[in-house]
Amino acid sequence: GAKSAGRRRFLQFDESMQDGRRDVLGIENELRAALQVGQFEPYFQPLVRLADRQRVGYEALVRWNHPTRGVLEPSQFLAVAEECGLVDAIDWQMYRAACTNGVELTRDGGYITINVSPRHFQGNDLDSRLLGLAASAKLDPSRLRIEVTEGTLLGDPEAVAKQLQKLANASIATALDDFGTGYCSLGYVHRFPLRMLKIDRSFIEPLGGRNKRRSEAVIGAVLALAGSLDIEVLAEGIETEAQHEALLAMGCGYGQGFLYGRPRPAAHWLPLDQSRAA
Ligand code: C2E
Ligand code: MG
Ligand code: MG
Ligand code: MG
């Protein structure tokens, strides 16, 4: 399944490095050591208003700053970390750094988002943990948003809705990530206090091409529903001007994708000096 695929991918990666095969225990030890010295860090990708392409926020995406292999992406280590039970620790290391970076990144307004997996809803303390993190980073909680997937909502809908409401009361808004890939019907999302729907990249990819009709129909329906519920809509994975123009014409408010910027370390997005900030 997904777990062994993750392990396989890491091993393939390893083999290509010519430093011999490692077993999962070796990877686990390496992940633990990486946690100890803090090698997990957020990269930030801009979220933009389509009308003027201005940045309204940034999504924090975890990277493993590996001393010899370079910067690793989630697909290269999250599955194996999951298998070793280390994703929680990695997440919290990354959330902490994201909040710290978030202070500067949101100084002129806007927000940062973090990806929160279903596991973090198992306890009943997500709101207090996130508020504690924001407080120790001196980040205003209204500058922090979370992203959850449909799977999270469907797990234990009533309990999750309650926790999202507690977060909303603490001014931490929620975005529904990868919308359209799971089993949430359009009529189901109104049960949850959501601030934003992020339409999955698979619906954006066909825009501007031959097979755009179906995608346009789905996106149109999402925009109509979200509009009536006063929920913001963001299109993920925008890579071309044609996609940008199509979404703008349909009335989609926000976008994210390589067209506007790839994920980069926080410093990339900050003013280099006062003259640039002025
Ligand atoms: P996601 O939350 O849907 O994040 C968006 C992914 O799409 C990112 O991949 C981003 O680099 C990629 N992307 C953005 N724009 C484009 C584009 O125009 N074209 C293409 N082809 N891709 C684009 P990334 O950083 O590799 O992250 C993959 C997934 O890993 C995320 O999907 C999220 O589910 C998970 N993830 C990332 N950071 C964390 C974290 O801190 N904790 C947990 N638990 N999961 C995380
Ligand atoms: Mg996300
Ligand atoms: Mg996403
Ligand atoms: Mg996605």
TrEMBL record:
Every EAL domain range: 24-277
Superkingdom, according to UniProt?
Answer: Bacteria
Transmembrane regions listed in the UniProt entry: none
Q: What is this protein called?
A: Diguanylate cyclase (GGDEF) domain-containing protein
Q: Which organism is it from?
A: Dokdonella immobilis
